[in-house]
Structures are given as C-alpha cells and as structure tokens.
Amino acid sequence: MAGQSEAYRPDIDGLRAISIFVVVIYHAQPWLIPGGYVGVDVFFVISGFLITRILLTEISASRFSVAGFYGRRVRRLFPALIIVLAVTAAIGWFVLLPDQYEFLGKNIAAGVAFAANLFQLSQTGYFAPASAEYPLLHLWSLGIEEQFYIVWPPVLLLVANTRRRRLWISLLALLSLCAGLTILSGSKGWAFYSPLARGWELLVGCLLAEINLRTSKLHLRVSENVLSCLGLSAIIGSSLALNADSLFPGPYAVPPVLGAALVLASPNSFVNRILLSSRPFVAVGLISYPLYLWHWPLLSYLEIVRNGDPTLIEVWAAVVSALVLSVITYRYAELPLRRRENLVPKLCLGMAGLAAMGLAAIFTRGFEFRFPPELQEIARLRTDDSPAFRDHCFLEAQASAYDESCIEQGSSPLLFVWGDSTAAALFPALDDLGKTTGKFRLARFNSPGCAPILDAGSNFRCDEANKAAFGFVESSHPDVVLLHAMWGTNNDLEKLHATIDSLRRGGVSRIVLLGPVPIWKRTLPHAMINHYRLWHEFADFIQTGVRGSDQDQRMRAFSRSAGIEYISAKRALCDPNRGCMTRVGPSASDIIATDIIHLSDHGARFLVRAISNELFSTPALVAGSSN
C-alpha cells in the first residue's frame, strides 16, 4: 500500500496546470477570469494531499525523519525562490523608488522567513489597486504553506497511530473553517492572509490522503467521472463567477476547495486520465511553481514602468517571458538540485544572504543613494506634509470638526468650498488669494472621499458630513458655492442634480462646479522619475499614465444640463499635444501633485491663478456670470 500511495499521478500535475492557468490569467487580465485567485486555494488542497500522503507513508513504515522531511522541502522550494528573489531585487534596483525598494526589502525579508502573509496583514489588501506595485505580494501563499508544513508533521505524529485520526483531521478542518468565518466577519484581510483561517483548505487535502481514495475504502456511490466533472466545474465556475468584491475567503471558498478534492478523489475518471494527464497539462503542471513565482514580479514591474497603463501585447509578452523563465528554472535549477543531499546548507546560506540584502534595503531607506539629489527630493514628497490636510475643517485632520471657525468672518463676498480631499488641497492657495486681494472671504468644508452630494446613500460618514456642510450653507448665505471632487464614475449625478436644486432653494445665487484634476496612475513623482530614467531629463509635461479626459467631459456635460457654471481643471493643467503639466518650477516642491490626484501647494496655487479670471473677479464673484 505504501508504494501505491506514493505512486506518481500525472493528473495531479494536470490539476496544478488548471490552478496556475486561472491565477496567471487573473493577474494578467482580471476581466477574463475575475475569480481566478481561487487557483491558489486549489494549490492548498493539492499541497495538503501530497504532504500528508508522504508523511503517512513514512510514518507507517517507521522511516519518518524530521531532517529528511524539511531537507526535501528546502530542495524543493529554495532553488527557484532564491533565483526569483534575486532577480526581483536586481530589477527593483533600477525600477523602484526608494520607499518602494525599502518595502521590497521588507517583503524579501518576510519571504525568506516564509512570513509574507503575516507581513501583508499590516499592508495593502490583496485586491487593492495599489497591490500591483508590490512585486512580491504573491509570496503570501508560500507563507501559509510553509507555516502549515512546520505545524502539521508533529500534529500528524500525535494522531497517526490512533484509530480516530480521520476524525481528528476532520475536526481540525472544521475548527479552521469556523475560525475563518469568524475572522471574516471582522476583517477580510485577516481572513485572507491568516494561516488559521486558511488551514482548513490544506486539511481537506490531508483528509483525502488519510482516506486514501486509491483503495476501496471510500465505497463511492457516484462514478468517478461524475465526481471529477463536478469538481472541475466547481473550480472553473468559481473562477468565472467570483470577483474582487466577493466576500472571500469564507463560504465562497468552499466550492473550489471541494472541487479540487473531488478531482483528486477521481484518479480513474476520463477527465483525470485523458485531459489532466495529457502531456500539455502535465508539462505546465511541472513548471507551475516557478511560473507562480515568476509571473507576478514581471507583471508588477510592467505596471510600474508603464505607469499603470501597459498594452495588451506587453502584458502577454510578460506572461510568455514568465513561461520561458519557468521552463529554464525548472530544467536547470529545480531538477538538478532536487536530489542533491549536500546542498541544503548552501541553499539556506543563499536565503540568509537575501535576507541580509532585504534588511540592508530597509536600513538604507531603499538604497536612496541610487538616485541623484533632485530625484531623492521628489521621491520624498508626501501628501500628508501639505498644510491643507492638517486644516481643522478637513475631517481627516487631528481634532477636526465642522464649526463656525470654518467660515471666515467679515463683510466681503463669501466663497464656500465644499468637497472631498482634492477640494481641501485648494484651501491654502484660496486662503492666501483671499487675504492678499481682500476681494472675498473663504468657507471650507471638506471630507476625505466624500463628493458634495446630499443623501448619496453609499457612505453613512459622507452623508452625515455633507448634511452638516449643507447646514452651514443655509446659515452662512454664501455668494458662491464651489463644488469640487474627484468626480469618478461612482458619483450619483442624479443625486448631485438634487443637491444643486437644494442649494438653489437655499438661496445660493451662483453655483460653480470645478472639474476633476488629472489622475496619475502611479503618482506624479513616480511618473517623473520613470521619465527621467528613460530620457535623462525632467519633463514639464507627460502624456502617459495620466487620465481624466472622460470625467472632465462628463462633468462639463452635467454642468450644462444642470444650468450651473463649469470650470475645467484639466484645461488649466493639461495640453492636448504635450500631455499634463508636472511642475511649475525647477525644485521638488514645484511638482503639481504629490500622489495620484492631490495637488501640491504649488500646484494648487497654479490652478487657482489659472482659474481666477473665471472665479475670483469681484463682479463674477458677486453677480455670477454665465460660463
């Protein structure tokens, strides 16, 4: 029986091929397979099955060795991982900004310690748009597997010789699933990255190995053909039906996990014997581990270099490159090194060297000396350094609140600025202009992420903030209300129209809508540094990696239909032929924006000056002229 349980099953490599297919396609083109991340869950089931099969075989034959087990894990996992980590670090040297390279160093150190999942708990979520900037984000799954490999052998040794080991494994899987559901109710991130919440997926594979489906012990009532078809359908169906917004893991993780279990339980089905055991599927399955390691760093770096806007050809060229590198890694690193007994200390030393490099990146602040002083200054820019976001009337600042102090006192015409954080960024420039000219006084009511729309219904915090702001509109009787926000497609323009009607009923004689500022895909400082790397010049205008034209046109059309004035921020900051402006002077502080959308102090002053003729002339401010 021992020999039988350890016999090579090509269909398992075929199942690995299915798993890596959906993962890679999801990362390359999420719209093709929006739930392709479930491929990792299938990998977990396979890992639990194979590891437990090996352990039980060795334990029953009284030849289990802790050193032997972990030695095989080192020879299996370390060669490809060392190569990919080293190459990722080398590419990052030329591609990443200092803070990004420092973060990469933390990821390398965590990856070497197989704790990347625990490290990610304090970082961005797996499904966040910014995750594309983290070349080693995918190592979280290796962390979960290795943590399981550390815990599972001693646990299995405790129950291996009991008559109820199957019951113990089942109970552990059930406890893990319940823990995962409990954690999910409090934190999707913890549920996604925690080994406690994910352990049941590996334990399902462990339970299959314990039952040993290749014997007659299971007494199947349904044919293996039906089981395998159901299992494969569950995997593919989940990949297509789920998406980044699905409540995952949790109940939605059950179908792909059970699907993988059904496929593993049906080695004699035609799906397993003909499809999954075919040469193409087996070939891809054999390189699935290096392909998993290679594909994400290449796609991530492509996103970074192309300012978040790679072409379709470039994306699939990166995937093909990952395939080629995976074949090379498997053929010339994994296979030759897998059975070399004396190589384990050298591989461990190599991993220790990478850990040291990661720590060096942390302590040197991402090897900041790689860049000339001008680029170092640009890389250090932080949005939070702007006084606009420390203002008492911006509801993210410390001790912030909406009150009478948000309305400047006096007899001059009142300009009431109502909007989100992009509106808050205008405050210092508007405040200075008002005090310098004496032509108007300022009221500002700004809340992060909250467009000035009453009763939008999508966010209770925003609804309460906007309700309070509107109350101050009614009590202060402003001469002009300036509405400004990111104005994304998620804004309800019908509710915005109703808000404008409410302002009119409240006696506001002039309402002006300021269109969205340009949106930089990977922050303006990043776009500038990328341009410098390629052309060795500081660009005053950049055309790639910036968007906003569609929203500008959309909001202009809305303003026309609502009968209010419209001022285009994009027209002031962008040129149809040269792209969008990056800076107003030679120093780092002269950059227009500090991140993807928030104007710097100098950028806000430039925009305010550029639109002053439309907004700030006294006759227009008081009487309200048509735009």
SSE inventory with pairings:
Elements: H1 2-6, H2 10-28, H3 38-60, H4 66-95, H5 98-112, H6 116-120, H7 140-159, H8 165-186, H9 188-193, H10 195-211, H11 224-241, H12 254-264, H13 270-276, H14 279-286, H15 288-305, H16 312-337, H17 344-363, H18 373-379, E1 414-419, H19 421-424, H20 427-437, E2 441-446, H21 460-476, E3 480-484, H22 493-505, E4 511-514, E5 519-520, H23 524-535, E6 541-542, E7 546-547, H24 549-562, E8 565-567, H25 569-573, E9 574-575, E10 579-581, H26 601-615, H27 618-623
Parallel strand pairs: 1-2, 1-3, 3-4, 4-8
Antiparallel strand pairs: 5-7, 6-10, 9-10
Helix pairs in contact: 2-3, 2-13, 2-14, 2-15, 3-7, 3-10, 3-12, 4-5, 4-15, 4-16, 4-17, 5-17, 7-10, 8-10, 10-12, 11-12, 15-16, 20-26
What is the compact description of this entry?
By secondary structure, the chain is mainly α. Helix content is 60%, strand content 6%. The protein folds into 2 domains: 2-370, no CATH class; 384-518 and 547-574 and 601-623, Rossmann fold (3-Layer(aba) Sandwich).
